[in-house]
Amino acid sequence: MAFEELKENTEKIQEQTKVYIDSHLAYYKLWGFKVAMKSTTLIFKFTLILLCFSMVLLFGSFAAAYAFGSLFGSTALGFLAVGGIYLLFTILLFFIKDKFVEGPILEKFSEIFFND
Question: Per the confidence metrics, is the pTM higher than 0.85?
Answer without folding.
Answer: no
